[in-house]
């Protein structure tokens, strides 16, 4: 199959059977979806001065040809087998780091809430509770970008902010892109739901948001890295301590595909060429400097090293 057009991708991901209903579960009889989400004690580690807990927001479902449009059918079968995806669909995880830094408690992205693929995602609230964390104690929230699986949990059903005492931090270019009133005339109709969601959630934090750019520190030792391409203002975070850690966001959407073939497109990248350049640069830097990476959509908890491997790279889970 050739690469899908963006409009077709968004049409497919937004179809009801991926969003709601028993059909979504019936279509994946071999998967125990609950087993894929974090339950019980979460993965924790220390990075320099920071204590980091990885909380799962559950899993998502998307067509494998959206995750790896450049792969041949045989390569897709091989990827699915390696990932344990038995139904020819991709089921990426969603790994949200909760970073304790002195008196600050910082979340990087907040997940889907009850609004996007709620049968299998939106688990952050339950996993925070299981970890004994009061949402009111979160002091800062950083958005890597404003896609539904990263920001749609911002506002709760009644309209209140889920993290009511937090300040919010987002790339200035990301804010400008989604809040542009002309966005709807510049996007295919199938993406309008994403734009409406981004505008809802960004507007909800407007009076407590800080626009950030490359090099800015969220707190000392936690710095913003510009990683555009997946979205125009996508940011990653660099955590100081030891050989460092890069919280990559969606620069590297899968631990096999993004490392073995960093020059392959990802169907959700807004600017595929820029996203590939950003991905290759981040992956090569992680391998060269032996810097840990945390991948939002890697298999839970998504923390590990990147090593050079023949023509590409490979991920070695921590
Ligand atoms: Zn994502």
Structural overview:
By secondary structure, this protein is of the alpha+beta class. It is 30% helix and 25% strand. It has helices spanning 6-14, 16-19, 22-26, 33-36, 64-67, 73-83, 124-130, 148-151, 172-179, 183-186, 192-204, 257-260, 272-289; strands at 43-47, 50-59, 62-63, 89-90, 93-101, 104-108, 140-143, 167-171, 209-212, 217-219, 222-226, 235-239, 245-249, 292-295, 303-309, 312-317. The chain has a 7-stranded mixed β-sheet with strand order 1-2-5-6-7-8-9. It is globular and about 50 Å long. Bound molecules: zinc ion. Residues 147, 149-150, 250, 296-297 line the site of zinc ion.
Bin the helical content: 25-40%
The largest β sheet comes out as: 7 strands, mixed
Straight-line distance between termini: 35 Å
Shape by Cα distribution: globular
- The CATH architecture of the domain at 6-26 and 43-228 comes to 4-Layer Sandwich
| CATH fold call of the domain at 6-26 and 43-228 | Metallo-beta-lactamase, Chain A
Associated small molecules? zinc ion
């Amino acid at each position: 199959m050739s690469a899908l057009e963006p409009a077709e991708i968004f049409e497919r991901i937004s179809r009801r059977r991926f969003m709601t209903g028993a059909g979504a579960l019936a279509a994946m009889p071999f998967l125990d979806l609950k087993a894929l989400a974090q339950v019980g004690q979460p993965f924790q580690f220390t990075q320099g001065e920071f204590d980091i807990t990885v909380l799962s927001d559950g899993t998502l479902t998307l067509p494998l040809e959206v995750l790896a449009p450049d792969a041949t059918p045989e390569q897709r079968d091989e990827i699915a087998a390696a990932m344990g995806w038995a139904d020819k669909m991709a089921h990426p995880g969603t790994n949200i780091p909760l970073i304790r830094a002195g008196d600050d408690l910082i979340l990087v992205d907040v997940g889907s809430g009850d609004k996007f693929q709620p049968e299998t995602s939106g688990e952050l609230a339950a996993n925070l509770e299981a970890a004994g964390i009061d949402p009111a104690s979160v002091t800062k929230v950083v958005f890597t970008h404003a896609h539904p699986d990263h920001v749609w949990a911002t506002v709760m059903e009644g309209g209140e902010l889920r993290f009511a005492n937090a300040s919010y931090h987002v790339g200035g270019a990301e804010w400008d892109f989604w809040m542009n009133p002309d966005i709807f005339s510049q996007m295919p109709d199938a993406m309008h739901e994403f734009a409406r969601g981004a505008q809802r959630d960004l507007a909800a934090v407007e009076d407590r948001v800080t626009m950030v750019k490359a090099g800015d520190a969220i707190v000392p030792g936690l710095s913003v890295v510009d990683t555009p391409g997946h979205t125009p203002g996508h940011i990653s975070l660099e955590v100081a301590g030891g050989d460092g850690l890069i919280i990559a966001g969606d620069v590297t959407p899968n631990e096999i595909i993004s490392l073995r073939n960093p020059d392959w497109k990802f169907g959700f990248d807004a600017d595929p060429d820029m996203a590939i350049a950003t991905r290759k640069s981040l992956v090569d830097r992680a391998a060269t400097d032996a810097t840990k990476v945390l991948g939002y959509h890697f298999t839970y908890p998504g923390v590990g090293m990147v090593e050079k491997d023949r023509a590409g790279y490979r991920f070695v889970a921590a």
